[in-house]
Amino acid sequence: MSLRAIKYENNSLEILDQLLLPAQSKYIQVKGVEDGWKVINKMQVRGAPAIAIVGCLSLAVELRDEKFDSKKQMRQEIEGKLNYLVSSRPTAVNMKIAAEELIDLANQLSKDEAVSLDEMKTKFLQTIEDMLARDIADNKAIGEYGAKEILSHVSGDSLVRILTHCNTGSLATANYGTALGVIRTLHSMKRLEHVYCTETRPYNQGARLTAYELVHDKIPATLIVDSMVAAVMKHRNIGAVVVGADRVAANGDTANKIGTYQIAVLAKHHGVPFYIAAPFTSIDMTIPSGDHIVIEERPDREMTHVGEHRIAAKAFDVTPATLIAGIITENGVFRPEQLKEQFGHINS
Ligand SMILES: CSC[C@@H](O)[C@@H](O)C(=O)COP(=O)(O)O
Question: pTM of the prediction?
Answer without folding.
Answer: 0.90
